[in-house]
User: Which sequence fits this backbone?
């Protein structure tokens, strides 16, 4: 009997690993597909010769293809995958830390603050650093400011989930309203720039942007993934988690700071892309259950797939017009919420 | 493990909850904590697990002061079951019990951890539910799983706050029976707050009766649960039946 | 079981880093290698070295598109934004679309291999992004803020120089300068208390324009006084009672694209513009305003509120403000001259009322 239970459990675990591996493979295939699609008409042959021309000592079909593949599409695909993974990870961790299925990096006020920082740069030209990185640096700094505010407010109230959620919403409204005021005062052209930024887009992805996001993800994810067991414990209740040796205040505080940092770093480059952080963990939960050891990596993969897919659509559906990625991901939210609303069978959360 | 509380006092803000509580639980003893609502049972248990720090007095575990014990080590030795049912969470039964191993887990889940969990599931009689989600279980099944989780911690002591609330008659008896059996087997000290006086009487070695944050009486069930004491503390008249050792109490009416 | 979980991400990370490194590795990226070059300064203040003469351009805004038509260089344009295409139809009907000025499609632009991409300066024209993506590939980014009336002659001459069509450019630039000078001279002597007091409304109800905007500068250059000049915000939304209190001498109203989808082009009668005027005057108390009683309420199509057409609006405004001073000024025929002689498009439509 004992052996049977163990065997069942082990195959249960193995199934989850297979799901994750399949998602990884899917991501790889989607990347290849995405690489061969675009506004410029490059045939598949040209795409592959251009791709391999930098890895193997082959000469590329022509400069144009090489440039388009390596300078325009590759960084964009990488950015989509990394940003999607990062936002999804941040979303999953926030939902776990706050025991709330509607938690996401956005309800913590981070994206509103980034939007305000960007608007400040775009409308008034005011910023922390000037020049090329004016908008990015501003967005990042204000996002960090929001994090600090939420963290401090939460700490004052004992870092309970409710106080963090309330603090996050308050901060979100604060910066949203400030952004609205800025928009009112803006010139039409600057206003258009702000609106585009707020809707999010990956068309400005360059290798120089991919690098910081990659580094940030590499730094934050081991720490977040390593807290999987703590997140599992917190899911059962703060007191229980404490009795199991988890320093709930510290885990929640550190987790918040890390996930905010990750989100801030991504959003500064990509603008606010909605719903990835909210929807991916739920989809992942449907695939591998609520054990964070598998939920977190699975969320990353789901997020990467969603964002890469959405971005590929964004730049090919109405080419050469680019649909803002945020618009497509927001549309994703609608069927998701309807599904949550209408489902008859029991939720994983009840 | 020997648990000792000496003149422990705790206030929630300006509201006093415990006033100079002194009690002891010896190794392997099962102590039932009873008293009316607001008498301080939950507060006392929280202090004993280190969740709340008493403003006055001290708590000793095996002679060592609670404040000096590292929380991680504490979680390896003391298990705590809070009052009420946990918020909905998406873990399977197996993973829920596995959570009890967290204090002992290293980098990864080991063979031993898995064996401890599956063994406990079997002993509790819920191994068939191993891969079901916790949220799908009935009340009685859930309590068994939570008990299994506590035992998976391989503790030396257990603090339980109303482990039988909301359970039907059969499950109440089943849980307490399992609890008593397992803890006696391994010499685990148990302090459990109970609502039901008869359950306390039937399953505890000793009973501590709290009244407005103070220890009103402490000792064998027979000597603590007397009509005189109960009328004083609960304001209810009772008729006592059964043996002097484990009395059965029939409530009559408020006095 | 868990051992695999550590190896896998490590491999993933290694692959990612390798790909990143490969992408980053230097390789000559330049697409375009010109022989003869010219160094110019654009409206953002940056110096750029461009091929001389220019062989192909991508144009992201119609303000520059107009100038190119005026210089007869429309056949050198290989890519346009959809708004440029629409505004200057049918000149660019067969030219590829490359995205808008705030959201350009880099892939498309790169595929067309232009010498120069023309946009606005600052973030409204995605200047930084365009420069960082395209300049390493040898494609120059030229910022022309030709939506500002005072910069139009300069931009015209700059493009004329770059295209080798200086004579035509001079003629076109002078068209603007002469008109502006004419108007400025005639209104320069007017004392402040005699100046016409103007309320300007955009296509959005009750939204006016204050200091620093195109509307303000047109009113001021034409010798008028913008009642909203001192407001704290560029495009404030004011209340009806504010207008009633100020009682302007002249009211200018912008008819937007909802009312005039084609901007007035192709219209044979002023119906829609008339409608806008009537709706405005039906607001409570507005028919009692001085401007209403003296019949000095004018509706202007959105087509005239941008680019080179601003000069026509300026002429109209001067005539409306001071009819006695500008008897000899015929804005409609000037408009025809601009559209037909310079841009080479058909002049047909109703753009102002009355």
Assistant:
């Amino acid at each position: 009997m004992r052996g049977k239970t163990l065997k069942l459990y082990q195959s249960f675990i193995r199934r989850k690993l297979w799901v994750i591996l399949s998602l990884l493979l899917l991501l790889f295939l989607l990347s290849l597909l995405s690489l061969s699609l675009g506004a410029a008409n490059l045939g598949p042959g040209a795409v592959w010769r251009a791709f391999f021309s930098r890895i193997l000592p082959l000469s590329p079909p022509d400069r144009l293809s090489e440039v388009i593949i390596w300078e325009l599409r590759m960084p964009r695909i990488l950015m989509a995958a990394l940003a999607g993974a990062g936002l999804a990870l941040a979303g999953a961790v926030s939902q776990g830390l706050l025991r709330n299925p509607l938690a996401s990096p956005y309800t913590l006020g981070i994206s509103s603050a980034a939007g305000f920082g960007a608007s400040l740069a775009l409308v008034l030209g005011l910023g922390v650093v000037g020049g090329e990185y004016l908008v990015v640096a501003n967005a990042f700094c204000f996002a960090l400011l929001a994090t600090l505010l939420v963290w401090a407010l939460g700490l004052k109230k004992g870092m309970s989930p409710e106080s963090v959620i309330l603090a996050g919403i308050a901060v979100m409204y604060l910066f949203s309203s400030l952004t609205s005021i800025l928009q009112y005062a803006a010139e039409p052209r600057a206003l258009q720039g702000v609106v585009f930024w707020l809707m999010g887009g990956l068309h400005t992805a360059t290798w120089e942007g991919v690098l910081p996001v990659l580094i940030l993800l590499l730094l934050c994810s081991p720490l977040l993934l390593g807290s999987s067991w703590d997140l599992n414990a917190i899911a059962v209740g703060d007191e229980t988690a404490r009795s199991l040796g988890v320093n709930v205040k510290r885990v929640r505080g550190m987790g918040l700071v890390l996930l905010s940092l990750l989100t801030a770093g991504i959003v500064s480059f990509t603008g606010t892309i909605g719903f990835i952080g909210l929807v991916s963990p739920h989809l992942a939960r449907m695939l591998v259950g609520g054990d964070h050891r598998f939920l977190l990596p699975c969320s990353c993969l789901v997020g990467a797939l969603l964002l890469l897919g959405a971005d590929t659509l964004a730049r090919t559906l109405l080419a050469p017009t680019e649909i803002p990625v945020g618009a497509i991901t927001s549309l994703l939210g609608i069927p998701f919420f309807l599904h949550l609303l209408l489902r008859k069978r029991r939720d994983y959360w009840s | 493990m020997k648990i000792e509380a000496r003149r422990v006092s705790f206030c929630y803000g300006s509201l006093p909850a415990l006033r100079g509580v002194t009690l002891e639980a010896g190794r392997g003893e099962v102590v039932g904590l009873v008293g009316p609502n607001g008498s301080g049972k939950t507060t006392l248990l929280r202090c004993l697990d280190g969740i709340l720090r008493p403003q006055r007095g001290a708590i000793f575990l095996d002679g060592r002061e609670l404040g000096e014990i590292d929380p991680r080590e504490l979680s390896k030795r003391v298990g705590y079951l809070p009052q009420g049912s946990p918020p909905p969470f998406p873990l399977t039964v197996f993973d829920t019990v596995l959570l009890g191993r967290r204090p002992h887990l290293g980098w990864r889940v080991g063979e031993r951890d898995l064996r401890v969990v599956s063994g406990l599931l079997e002993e509790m009689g819920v191994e068939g539910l191993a891969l079901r989600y916790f949220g799908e279980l009935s009340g009685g099944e859930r309590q068994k799983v939570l008990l299994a989780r506590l035992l998976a911690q391989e503790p030396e002591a257990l603090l339980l706050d109303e482990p039988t609330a909301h359970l039907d008659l059969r499950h109440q008896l089943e849980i307490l029976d399992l609890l008593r059996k397992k803890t006696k087997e391994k010499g685990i000290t148990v302090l459990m707050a109970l609502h039901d006086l008869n359950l306390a009487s039937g399953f505890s070695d000793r009973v501590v009766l709290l009244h407005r944050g103070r220890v009103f009486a402490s000792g064998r069930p027979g000597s603590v649960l007397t009509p005189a004491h109960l009328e004083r503390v609960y304001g209810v008249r009772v008729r006592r039946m059964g043996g002097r050792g484990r009395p059965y109490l029939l409530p009559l009416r408020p006095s | 079981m868990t051992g695999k979980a550590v190896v896998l991400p490590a491999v993933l990370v290694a692959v990612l880093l390798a790909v990143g490194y490969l992408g980053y590795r230097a390789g000559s990226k330049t697409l375009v290698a010109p022989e003869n070059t010219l160094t110019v300064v654009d409206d953002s203040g940056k110096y750029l070295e461009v091929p001389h003469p220019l062989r192909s351009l991508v144009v992201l805004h119609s303000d520059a598109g107009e100038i190119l038509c005026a210089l007869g260089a429309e056949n050198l344009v290989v890519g346009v934004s959809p708004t440029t295409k629409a505004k200057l139809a049918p000149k660019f009907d067969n030219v590829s679309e490359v995205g808008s000025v705030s959201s350009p499609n880099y892939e498309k632009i790169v595929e067309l291999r232009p010498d120069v991409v023309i946009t606005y300066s600052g973030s409204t024209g995605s200047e930084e992004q365009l420069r960082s993506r395209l300049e390493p590939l040898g494609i120059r980014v030229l910022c022309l803020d030709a939506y500002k009336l005072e910069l139009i002659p300069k931009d015209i001459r700059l493009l004329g120089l770059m295209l080798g069509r200086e004579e035509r450019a001079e003629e076109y630039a002078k068209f603007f300068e002469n008109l502006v000078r004419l108007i400025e001279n005639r209104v320069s002597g007017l004392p402040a208390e005699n100046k016409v007091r103007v309320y300007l409304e955009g296509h959005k109800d009750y939204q006016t324009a204050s200091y620093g905007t195109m509307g303000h500068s047109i009113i001021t250059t034409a010798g008028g006084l913008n009642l909203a000049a001192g407001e704290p915000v560029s495009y404030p939304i004011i209340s009806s009672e504010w207008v009633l209190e100020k009682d302007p001498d002249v009211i200018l109203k912008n008819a937007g694209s909802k009312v005039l989808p084609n901007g007035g082009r192709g219209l044979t009668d002023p119906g829609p513009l008339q409608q806008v005027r009537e709706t405005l005057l039906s607001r409570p108390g507005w028919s009692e305003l001085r401007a209403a009683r003296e019949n000095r309420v004018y509706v202007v199509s959105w087509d005239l509120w941008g680019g080179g057409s601003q000069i026509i609006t300026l002429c109209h405004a001067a005539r409306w403000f001071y009819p006695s001073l500008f008897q000899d000024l015929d804005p409609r025929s000037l408009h025809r001259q601009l559209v037909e002689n310079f841009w080479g498009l058909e002049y047909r439509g109703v753009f102002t009322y009355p």
In short: Chain A has a mean pLDDT of 86.
